[in-house]
Structures are given as structure tokens and as C-alpha cells.
Write a structure and sequence with these properties.
The protein is mainly alpha-helical. Helix content is 78%, strand content 0%. It has 30 helices and no strands. The radius of gyration is 30 Å and the shape is elongated. GO terms for molecular function: DNA binding.
């Protein structure tokens, strides 16, 4: 009978991306006889990829010492690098930083000219990027890419290209930055890089595209990440973040039940072992879905738990307070968040919520300031998503200012943009605002049709608060469709009553929050319907009919 060789089985499983099999077979081989340094590194990577982080740390540490014992400084440094990076990603920054410093000392003492020089520049480059010094980060990643090219190191080349792309995006060169992100992804999708590097690049590119509101790329790369995760046996890292992004995409497409399932699966996946910072993102996503469905207590619980995992609760919590009728609390929260947050990735979402909340609070000037900043930010991105957000914000401002006709034009633009992105909830939400504008100008038939269409979408999605608002407006539109005395609409009757008090067109416009031009049109329509030619004759009609 042939003897089974667990080491050979482990190496074979490693090549097939069967990470649990690889770890278990290599562990069995190691118990029979200590593995050589290269196999210890493979066992560490397999352990990391199935979430056995303590085992991975122990194996990388052993690999490091084994390489040193054999006089192999370069691979010893690489083992120390991956151990340090893994610990930092897990939140053990002091311990991880110690291993990275140890690796640097070895390189300095041995004066090696090797690819590891590039790897050890990555943490400082990332620190510069996170600290807002994108120019320094870009210079560092250019040097890292140069080292990668010199030693033909695919993993290091991918990290360098990724970092250059991220830095260019931060510097405002979005088009050039995104092109480099795509280039980094080519190395990943063609299998040129190792699995850990592939996972890091996948997640970083998706977050970067999400940050510039390039939803087409987010969807494309999330689908690719999902396929990649499915091909890795028992993969633990990266899968949770993939599930969160899938949930966000499903939410945008109106697949809310599936989105909730993906967010729940993400939380379950990220809870074992605990400590993954992506958990905050998953909890916030669950909170958003609960809020839109009207499950306010569940939404608040999710937002609070997200904060406990290091993820901000805004703008979701402020919008929840608005939905609960706590307008002052909502305004205070969103103002604080806008004042404290300077990042270009987070700010547009906060500003969009700020416009909505400030208008609800009656602070039109503050809402206009937020919308103007949102417009300036959107000008720097080629993003249909941001264009739709800006059009909705300006339409809402115009409506609040009484410019109902102009509001309709802006809202039509927002509706078309959301529809093109296949975003049914956002499209229906615009239709609610469009219906309000139509009611202001007396176009009750259009208002009724917009509300009916929006209501069907809200009912299908389970968006209870929005559905109730649509039904309330629909009752108003339906009632308004029945003409009053002389065929006058309710708004025309309002205008006539104010005319009877001696109010001027300007005073009527201020009172009803409409434009002077709209008042004049109402008067013209009214004179035609009543068969009169003057304000005095119209007032006489009002007295005769008890108006």
C-alpha cells in the first residue's frame, strides 16, 4: 500500500487554492517532521486565508527564524513583513510595527538590494496617504513601483500601481487614478499575484471606486471579487467586505430583501473571529435598510453598534431622527458631522443629507450652502450618481424657494439620471418631490400620476415611510383634482381669497411660497374660468359665492 505524504497533499491543495486542505495537510506534515522555511510560509498563508490568524502568526514567525538560520535574509524579511502587516490589519499595531521594524533592521544591517526594500516602504506610503499627504504618498509609490520593475516582483508591482492610483485620486486626478486602479486589477484578474495580495487589491480598488462614486466600476469589480471569493476554499478575509458591497449594490437596484440577507450574512461572517473593522460597515448597511423600511428601533441599534466598531453613524442616524420627526436633533447631528468631516469620500453623502434636513428645519440658506458645495465636488467627478444627487438637491431648493416650474426641470433631470442607473427607490423619491412641485403649480393630474408610480415602487420595496408619504400626497392630489365653484382649483380659490383681502401679486406669492409669475398665471386662468376681466369683478364673484 502506498504511503500518503501529507506534505505533498498540502502543496497540491495549496496550488488549487484549497486553503483549509492545504493548512490541515501541511500541519500534519509539520507534526511528523518540522517543515522547511518555504513550506512554513505557505502554511502561514493558508492559515491566514481560512481565518486561523494565531496559527498564521506562529507559522510566519517560525518561517522567519528558519530563513535566518539558513542565512536567507531576503525571505526572512518578507515573512516578517507579512506577519507585521497581518497584525496591523487585525488591530495589533504595536506588535505589527515591531515586526516591520525588525525587518527593516535586517535589511539595513545586511545592506541587501532586493524587492523587500519596496515592501517595507509600503507602510510609510500608506501612512502618508491616510494622513492627507497624497503627494508624498505618490512619490513613495512611484519608487515602490520602480523597485518592483527592477526585480520583476508581481505582488510589489500591484501594490505600487494600486497606491499610485489611490494617491492620484486623492490629488484630484480621478481619471488617471482610476486608470491605474484598473491596471492593478488586471494583474489580479489574470492570476499574476498571490492570493493575499489579490484580496487586498480587490477590496482597496472597490473602496476607491466607491469613494469617487464610480458605481459602474464598483458593480463590475464587486462581481469579480464575488467570483474570486467563491473559488477560494473556506476563504475568511475579504468575503465579508464583498458581501457588504453586494448588499449596497442590491439596495441601489431595488433588491432590498436580498440586500438585507447579504448584510446579515456579512455580519455573521465577520463576527467569527471578532475584531474585523469591516463589521462596522456591515452594521451601518443593515441600519440603512432598516431605516428605509421604517424599522426605526432596529436601525438605531445597528447605527450604535456600527459606532462601536469604528464606523460613523452619520448621515444615517441624522436621517433617522428626521424620519422620527426630531428635526432639531437631526439638524444638530448633521451640522456637527459636516463640520468635522473633511474627507472627499464621506462629505458628499453628508452634504446630500444636510440639504434635506436643513430644508426640513427651515434653514434654506444653510441648505443652499450645502448644495453649492455638493455641486463643486461633483464637478470634479465624472459620476452620474453625483449628478443625480446634485439635481435632486437643487430641485428641492427651488421648490422651497417657490420656483416650482424650475424645480420641475431640475427634478426631471434627477429622475432621468436615477432611472438610467436602474435605481428604483431614488427614482421614486424624486417623483414624490416632483409631485409636490406639480401640486404647487396646479398640475394635479401629473402629480397624481407621479405619486401612483412612486407608490407602486415603495410598496414593492417595503419602504413604509415613503409609501405613507406618497399616499398622503395622493389623497391631497385626488381631492385637489375636483374643481371648486366656477371650475376653480383649490389653489386658485386660495389666490382669489387673498385677492379679496387687497393683497398684491407679490404678497400673494410670499404667502403661498410661489413665484410672481405663478400668481399671474393663476389670475389669468381664474379670469377665463369666471368670465371676468378684472380683479374687482373676481372679488365680487368671491363674495357672491361665499369664498
Amino acid at each position: 500500500m502506498a504511503t500518503v505524504d501529507p506534505r505533498a497533499q498540502g502543496l497540491s491543495a495549496y496550488e488549487r487554492s484549497a486553503w483549509r486542505d492545504a493548512y490541515e495537510h501541511l500541519s500534519a506534515a509539520d507534526r511528523q517532521r518540522p517543515l522547511p522555511a518555504g513550506d512554513l510560509d505557505r502554511m502561514a498563508r493558508a492559515a491566514y486565508l481560512i481565518g486561523a490568524f494565531d496559527a498564521a502568526a506562529g507559522s510566519w514567525e517560525r518561517a522567519h527564524h528558519a530563513h535566518l538560520a539558513q542565512g536567507e535574509a531576503s525571505p526572512a524579511v518578507r515573512s516578517a513583513f507579512w506577519l507585521g502587516i497581518m497584525l496591523v490589519l487585525r488591530g495589533e499595531e504595536a506588535r505589527g510595527g515591531g515586526w516591520l521594524a525588525r525587518a527593516q533592521h535586517i535589511l539595513t544591517d545586511t545592506a541587501l538590494d532586493c524587492a523587500e526594500q519596496g515592501y517595507l516602504r509600503i507602510p510609510a506610503a500608506l501612512q502618508a496617504l491616510d494622513g492627507g499627504d497624497a503627494e508624498a504618498a505618490h512619490r513613495a509609490f512611484v519608487e515602490i513601483t520602480g523597485i518592483a520593475e527592477r526585480f520583476d516582483d508581481a505582488d510589489l508591482r500591484a501594490f505600487g500601481t494600486l497606491g499610485r492610483g489611490q494617491a492620484l485620486v486623492a490629488l484630484g486626478g480621478v481619471a488617471r487614478g482610476v486608470a491605474l486602479l484598473d491596471e492593478a486589477m488586471v494583474a489580479v484578474t489574470t492570476g499574476e499575484v498571490s492570493p493575499i495580495t489579490a484580496g487586498i487589491v480587490y477590496c482597496a480598488v472597490i473602496l476607491a471606486c466607491r469613494g469617487v462614486f464610480d458605481l459602474r466600476r464598483v458593480q463590475e469589480w464587486t462581481a469579480a471579487l464575488s467570483r474570486w471569493c467563491a473559488a477560494q476554499q473556506d476563504l475568511k478575509p475579504y468575503r465579508g467586505q464583498c458581501l457588504v458591497h453586494r448588499s449596497e449594490i442590491m439596495q441601489l437596484r431595488g433588491e432590498w430583501a436580498d440586500a438585507m440577507d447579504e448584510a446579515r450574512r456579512a455580519c455573521e461572517h465577520l463576527s467569527d473571529p471578532p475584531g474585523d473593522p469591516v463589521m462596522g460597515m456591515a452594521l451601518y448597511q443593515r441600519g440603512e435598510l432598516h431605516r428605509l423600511r421604517g424599522a426605526h428601533s432596529r436601525a438605531e441599534q445597528c447605527y450604535r453598534e456600527a459606532v462601536g466598531h469604528g464606523h460613523p453613524a452619520q448621515p444615517g442616524l441624522a436621517l433617522l431622527r428626521l424620519a422620527q420627526g426630531r428635526v432639531d436633533d437631526a439638524a444638530a447631528a448633521i451640522r456637527r458631522a459636516v463640520a468635522e468631516t473633511r474627507g472627499p469620500e464621506e462629505r458628499p453623502r453628508l452634504l446630500a443629507a444636510c440639504v434635506e434636513i436643513e430644508l426640513a428645519a427651515g434653514s434654506v440658506d444653510a441648505a443652499r450652502d450645502a448644495a453649492d458645495e455638493l455641486d463643486r465636488i461633483a464637478a470634479g467627478f465624472d459620476s452620474p450618481y453625483l449628478r443625480a444627487v446634485v439635481a435632486y438637491a437643487h430641485g428641492s431648493l427651488l421648490l422651497a424657494a417657490g420656483e416650482s416650474e424650475a424645480a420641475c426641470a431640475a427634478l426631471r433631470s434627477a429622475s432621468a439620471a436615477w432611472h438610467e442607473m436602474d435605481a428604483p427607490y431614488e427614482t421614486a423619491r424624486v417623483r414624490l418631490q416632483l409631485a409636490r412641485a406639480c401640486l404647487r403649480i396646479g398640475d394635479h393630474d401629473t402629480a397624481e400620476m407621479e405619486l401612483q408610480a412612486a407608490g407602486r415602487v415603495f410598496e414593492h420595496l417595503g419602504a413604509a415611510p415613503a409609501l405613507e408619504e406618497a399616499r398622503r400626497l395622493l389623497r391631497r392630489a385626488g381631492g385637489a383634482a375636483h374643481p371648486g365653484p366656477g371650475g376653480l382649483t383649490p389653489r386658485e380659490v386660495e389666490v382669489l381669497r387673498l385677492v379679496a383681502t387687497g393683497a398684491s401679486n407679490r404678497e400673494i406669492a410670499d404667502r403661498l411660497v410661489i413665484s410672481d409669475r405663478t400668481v399671474a398665471r393663476h389670475l389669468s386662468n381664474m379670469f377665463t374660468k369666471l368670465g371676468v376681466s378684472s380683479r374687482a369683478a373676481a372679488v365680487a364673484y368671491a363674495y357672491e359665492h361665499g369664498l
